[in-house]
Description:
By secondary structure, this protein is an alpha+beta fold. It folds into two domains: about 5-60, 2,3-Dihydroxybiphenyl 1,2-Dioxygenase, domain 1 (Roll); about 75-120, no CATH class. The protein has helices at about 15-25, 75-85; strands at about 5-10, 30-35, 40-45, 50-55, 65-70, 95, 100-110, 115-120. About 20% of the residues are buried.
Amino acid sequence: MTYSLGHIGIRVADMDRALRFYTGALGGKKGREYHMPSGSHLVFVNFADFSVELICKPGDDRTPGRNHLAFSVPSIHDAVTRLNKAGFPVPESAIGPMGEHAFNCFLSGPDGEIIELCEGSL
């Protein structure tokens, strides 16, 4: 099973400033934008073969910076089965919808790093 880099999630303190940097200074193209029920504002900035997901949540006292690493997978159910067989338990119930035609699942890596698996496209 081949995985590819889907996106890197980055917590930002100021969405406008972050967009100026990632689109203006680095040349990315602003992609989809979401306003989540939790209050988070998400914007994807697309580059040649990966995206950066900018995450801004007012009142979030966590330090801005890397939030998670996301892998695109052909089958999220197969990926979860593979993780379980390798001794990294992930319940099937962790898989959820992400938009109309996609699914995702968050899990912790062996050192507590946040990993997201994504199947389909936003």
